Amino acid sequence: xxxxxxxxxxxxxxxxxxxxxxxxxxxxxxxxxxxxxxxxxxxxxxxxxxxxxxxxxxxxxxxxxxxxxxxxxxxxxxxxxxxxxxxxxxxxxxxxxxxxxxxxxxxxxxxxxxxxxxxx
Length: 120
Description:
This protein is an all-beta fold and 120 residues long.
């Protein structure tokens, strides 16, 4: 079964940087899309960034110019976070999507999340 594992979260001062990584522990060859979401206390989960072969990269307006999503293969994704702000404090979740080649059914997977805290 597919399992996504995030790493790289932690505590950082305002203006600092962190790099999150997400890797699939299963043997699946690739995902159609991968990305990052985040959820702060009292707020809805929101899109941070996504990357796919067909759609390229997409970023939330709040992180454009500061965050960069990338991948070194189709089942590993990274999020480089620079110039961090207190507003970036949240639990960050890795996301992946797989579309079955025959049935075209979409499968979505989520990591357990990693805490990012930006202190002022």
